[in-house]
């Protein structure tokens, strides 16, 4: 059996589509179908079935995927340790929260790509809970998250730095310039928040709940840029990572409010599965992130 069928099978499991798998791997759809059929013939079971518009793994397919992940990791480890090639090859799968993808890892990723032109990099943004789950399920080789310190028995956590969170308002907001503002003043404000399950939204809502503070109204967006523009347009106030509003604070289009609550900060962290072998390419990327911090 051709071991490349395992790579095709893993992509089908990821995308749920023979067409998308073919596009990602440079195969015709018929070639993907043929490879999956040969795997099914080899094992004598049905591995993939149609569910509406997508393809999903059967129970046997789920069992095989567990072993395929391990086989591919071992193959990549063997190639890396045995091969004398200087250039790194293969695929690196990285997850990151949107704010870090846009404002923290982009420069490291650019340098990484320039140093390793033959390396295929897959970067996906997501919320912290989804990223943790993705690492546990081997969907990502590693993820870069902004959260409370991650503690999980199956995850390795590498702390990069502490990131300050700032509550920002438009330049003409009446609270601008005031010192030690009582956090209860938020009851008179409209909060512009990120989507539910975002780590810093959860942190702010937790703080307000403990103080029995309920804002006048709440607006939610998935886009950081939309949130910042709404604050600039005086639709409300928002709490965001300092790095995401550094430019606006510098040019004066946004102003940081001095609320009396201490400890508004989260940690930028790299997480990976404890059993995940870190290839030289992954170790190099981690090194670049440490240099960026």
Automatic annotation (TrEMBL):
Alphabetical list of InterPro entries matching this protein: LysR_HTH_N (IPR000847), LysR_subst-bd (IPR005119), WH-like_DNA-bd_sf (IPR036388), WH_DNA-bd_sf (IPR036390)
Which Pfam families would you find in this protein's record?
A: HTH_1 (PF00126), LysR_substrate (PF03466)
Specify the domain of life of the species encoding this protein: Bacteria
Family recorded in the similarity comment:
Belongs to the LysR transcriptional regulatory family.
Q: Which GO terms describe its molecular function?
A: DNA-binding transcription factor activity; transcription cis-regulatory region binding
Asked if the keyword ATP-binding belongs to this entry, the reply reads no
Name it: LysR family transcriptional regulator
Q: Where is the HTH lysR-type domain?
A: 1-58
């Amino acid at each position: 059996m051709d071991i490349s069928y395992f790579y095709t099978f893993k992509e089908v499991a990821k995308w749920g589509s023979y067409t998308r798998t073919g596009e990602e791997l440079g195969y015709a759809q018929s070639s993907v179908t043929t490879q999956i059929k040969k795997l099914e013939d080899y094992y004598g079971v049905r591995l993939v079935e149609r569910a509406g518009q997508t393809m999903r793994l059967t129970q046997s397919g789920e069992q095989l995927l567990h072993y395929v992940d391990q086989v591919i990791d071992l193959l990549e480890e063997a190639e890396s340790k045995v091969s004398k090639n200087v250039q790194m090859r293969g695929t690196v799968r990285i997850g990151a929260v949107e704010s870090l993808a846009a404002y923290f890892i982009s420069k490291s990723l650019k340098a990484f790509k320039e140093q390793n032109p033959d390396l295929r990099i897959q970067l996906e943004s997501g919320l912290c809970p989804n990223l943790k789950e993705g690492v546990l399920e081997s969907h990502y080789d590693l993820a870069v998250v902004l959260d409370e310190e991650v503690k999980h028995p199956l995850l390795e956590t590498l702390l990069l730095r502490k990131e300050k969170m700032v509550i920002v308002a438009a330049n003409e907001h009446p609270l601008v310039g005031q010192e030690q503002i009582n956090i209860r003043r938020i009851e008179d404000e409209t909060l512009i928040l990120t989507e539910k399950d975002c780590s810093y939204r959860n942190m702010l809502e937790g703080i307000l709940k403990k103080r029995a503070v309920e804002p006048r109204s709440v607006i939610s967006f998935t886009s950081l840029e939309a949130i910042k523009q709404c604050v600039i347009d005086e639709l409300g106030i928002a709490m965001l990572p300092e790095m995401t509003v550094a430019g606006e604070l510098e040019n004066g289009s946004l102003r940081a409010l001095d609320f009396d609550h201490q400890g508004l900060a989260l940690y930028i962290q790299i997480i990976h599965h404890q059993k995940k072998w870190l290839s030289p390419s992954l170790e190099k990327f981690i090194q670049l992130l440490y240099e960026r911090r």
